[in-house]
Amino acid sequence: MQAISIFEIFKIGIGPSSSHTLGPWNAARDFRTSIGAGCDHIQVHLYGSLCKTGKGHATDVAVQLGLQGHDSSIIDVDKITTYLKKIADTKVIKIGDAEVSFDPESDIVFKKVTHALHPNTLIFHAYKNGEHMKESIYLSIGGGFIEKPGEPKSKNEVKLPFPIDKGKDILTYTDKYKSSISDIVIQNEKIQRTQEEIVRDLDEILDTMLACIYRGCTTDGILPGGLNVKRRARHLCLQLNGGKSYNSLNEWLETIRNGPRDHSIINRWISCFALAVNEENAAMGRVVTSPTNGAAGVIPAVIMYYFLFCDYKGRDTLINFMCTAGEIGSLFKKGATISAAVGGCQAEIGVSSAMAAGGLTEVLGGTPRQVLMAAEIAMEHHLGMTCDPIGGLVQIPCIERNAMGAVKAITATHLALTSEPHDAKVDIDTVIKTMWDTAQEMNSKYKETAEGGLAYNLPVIMPEC
Ligand code: SF4
Question: What spacing in Å lies between the alpha carbon of 3 and ligand 1's midpoint?
């Protein structure tokens, strides 16, 4: 059984896309360490979806930063322009002691053809004195994960006390030990981290999510890329806050907590939080991949709903939320996909909504069966959702779609909490299989190619490939 840590599902990175930005970034960093002595020139070829929406998803930027050796989880986002200018001016990348020729204009080659191995394939080529030395093929398989053909799919070969492949495996353990899903997940995570490290690292992820929401709610302007999409989260936040002032994040949270709490206002706050995250994502801000960047706003928005508007029971419950949500994300990654280039938007917003629904249900007191039922309900109503980003940018429909995913997750939770799971006709494993079947039958124009749906009917600024 493949072991996927929740820290592979939740990763701190930058926007706008996990499969088109973070995956290629990680691939470029990996390639950099393997080019070998004597290489004096490198090229990268971007195939299929990485070509068709690569510029809108900053794939070209990501490979340059990765080749320079920057780490996406800690890079100073304010310096990215400087780093790119250096390559553009010098047409050289320093790797170890070597100065390797790389002209972004001619050495990033967009190949419209879809590679037989995967819709998101990129191939790096190394040259020495004009002779081809080697090539390295990488597949960006969603959520920032990469694979190299011929190498083991997961480097995470640990032996877990509670191996989990399907939802029914989880229920076997929770029934036997009378435990919550998060308890089981924490026992598995303890194979690789101590309890203190699990809490510390999840705290960092939660803090990054919160900081992202706050930045998005306090930043105005037009998003980059040429669509001229206006940021809306700040304006919505000001409206909802009724002009109340605050000087820090904590004061801001208090003004929300102490403000009006009718259904309409709570609903608008949820949208505001989700918009804030995905506006930051579209602007190459720091976000948490959960399980992807395009869907990074769903889980933070649902966590804020719990934190501000429900019976919040302390920081420990947020850890439990994340453990349960992360495990549900793993179920989808193992049984289906979290890549929009393979499964459309059901694989991004659908999975994040299912994760959020599961996490929320657990912290609101649901049984493990109700947790999985909530995740199933959330996905059931995203089945078949297409990926059709206008202009290849992660903006329309993506930003609003996070608000919708969050609201559906909350509705799924409340349905599950008031239902008897034994009466349900569809279980989590069936919905995961159905999502995978649907993904395989979906026309490729609805899989992150910007060739169908809204992208087809509003064909603006498509990058020349
Ligand atoms: S439409 Fe959905 S899957 Fe496609 S880029 Fe936008 S958020 Fe991601």
Answer: 26
Does this model's pTM top 0.90? My answer is: yes
CA of 43 to the centre of ligand 1 (A): 28
Cα 465 to its chain centre, rounded Å, is 25
362: CB partners within 8 A, 6+ apart: 180, 181, 182, 320, 321, 324, 368, 371
Superfamily of domain 6-147: D-3-phosphoglycerate dehydrogenase; domain 3 (3.30.1330.90)
Q: What residues flank ligand 1, with Cβ below 6 Å?
A: 294-295, 340, 345, 348-349, 387-389, 394, 397-398, 401, 448
Q: Which of 292, 394, 446 to mutate to test the pocket of ligand 1 (most atoms within 8 A of CB)?
A: 394
192-206, 208-222, 238-252, 402-416: segment of lowest average pLDDT = 238-252
Count, in order, helices (H) and strands (E) of the chain: 20, 9
Question: Please, which pLDDT band fits residue 284 given cuts at 50, 70 and 90?
Answer: very high
Res 155: pLDDT: 53
Cα of 341 vs centre of ligand 1, distance in Å, is: 9
Ligand 1 centroid to 448 CA: how many Å?
Answer: 7
**Probe target for ligand 1 pocket from 279, 348, 402, 404, with the most ligand atoms within 8 Å of CB:** 348
Going from the Cα of 77 to the center of ligand 1, the distance in angstroms, rounded, reads: 22
Report the share of the chain in percent with pLDDT over 90.
Answer: 89
pLDDT at 459 over 90: no
Element of type H or E holding 132: strand 131-142
Sorted by where each begins, the domain ranges of the chain are 6-147, 167-457
- The torsion angle over the Cα atoms of residues 136, 142, 143 and 144, rounded to 10 degrees, is 10
Task: State the chain's mean pLDDT as an integer.
Answer: 95
